[in-house]
Specification:
Order of helices and strands: HHEHEHEHEHEHEHEHHE
Helix content: 40-55%
Number of helices: 10
Strand content: 15-25%
Number of strands: 8
CATH superfamily: NAD(P)-binding Rossmann-like Domain
CATH topology: Rossmann fold
Largest sheet: 8 strands, parallel
Number of domains: 1
Structural class: alpha/beta
CATH class: Alpha Beta
């Protein structure tokens, strides 16, 4: 995975904030401001894509634990059901968790995206935070990467985020507030061999954040990118089974940073680097 020194070369160009292995991640940077906002932010409505495992699931647990209503979403009904059961059990909610909504759909499909957004509005009445986390990866040299592999990565990682941002922005503009977080990667600011499609999609997410931050200036909407280093997720370990997960960040560590960024204290358009 990328060294911190590689990423630091471009910090001045794109406004990257760096956070290491602190107990509370992003909260250590601006703890007082976040605590002040937290008092008025309990009960927000959070929509997280790709949220039935890994970083997305850990983020859902973090928001629920802190009193926010949370909609989780992925393509597979059985994964959604398992995640809902786990989150409900984690919250000690017995037979159900009132602030949790599980939805099935495809981030690559505009009709599916519109359905999910409408379902969240019907359930909770608003959308305060959108976290674009759904992602896939291909790890192979560019000359071995097929058209289909390239297209699937770009559609899932980049187009999916575009579709959700496009659908949610009018809602947030009517509300006069909102936070959008795209989960990019350290590979979204510095490429690495065998990650052509993945890195291109993650670079795109950082650029998309900068564009939408500029377009929404003065509207009360904040837009951010998160740039995790190596995280012990199924996605990563399936591609790199020889790596030791004990030497990597946990999804829960990244989730704490996401939660802190979602308070909307930092400058819109920022990219927040998270490392072990």
């Amino acid at each position: 995975m990328l060294s911190i020194s590689c990423i630091m070369h471009i910090i001045s160009a794109i406004g990257v904030l760096s956070f290491g292995h602190h107990a509370n991640g992003y909260k250590t940077y601006m703890d007082k401001s976040i605590q002040d906002k937290r008092e008025s932010n309990v009960g927000r409505v959070v929509l997280i894509t790709g949220s039935t495992r890994g970083i997305g699931l850990a983020a859902a647990a973090e928001f629920l634990r802190n009193g926010d209503n949370t909609a989780i979403f992925c393509r597979h009904q059985n994964h959604v059901d398992e995640a809902v059961d786990k989150l409900t059990a984690d919250q000690g909610a017995g037979s159900g968790c009132e602030g949790l909504q599980g939805l099935v759909g495809d981030v690559r499909d505009p009709d599916s995206v519109d359905y999910v957004v409408k379902a969240v509005l019907e359930r909770f009445g608003r959308i305060d935070i959108l976290i674009n986390n759904a992602g896939i990866a291909v790890w192979k040299p560019i000359e071995e990467t097929t058209d289909d592999e390239w297209d699937e990565v770009i559609k899932t990682n980049l187009k999916g985020s575009f579709l959700f941002m496009r659908a949610v922005l009018p809602i947030m503009k009517r509300q006069g507030s909102g936070v959008i977080i795209n989960i990019s990667s350290g590979l979204g600011v510095q490429g690495q061999a065998k990650y052509s499609a993945y890195s291109a999609s993650k670079f795109g997410l950082v650029g998309l954040v900068q564009v939408v931050a500029d377009e929404t200036s003065g509207t009360g909407i904040k837009v951010y990118a998160i740039l995790p280093g190596g995280v012990a997720t199924k996605l990563h370990l399936d591609m790199h089974p020889w790596e030791d997960p004990s030497k990597m960040m946990t999804p829960e560590h990244v989730a704490k940073t996401i939660f802190g960024v979602a308070e909307g204290v930092g400058a819109s358009g920022s990219a927040v680097e998270v490392y072990f």
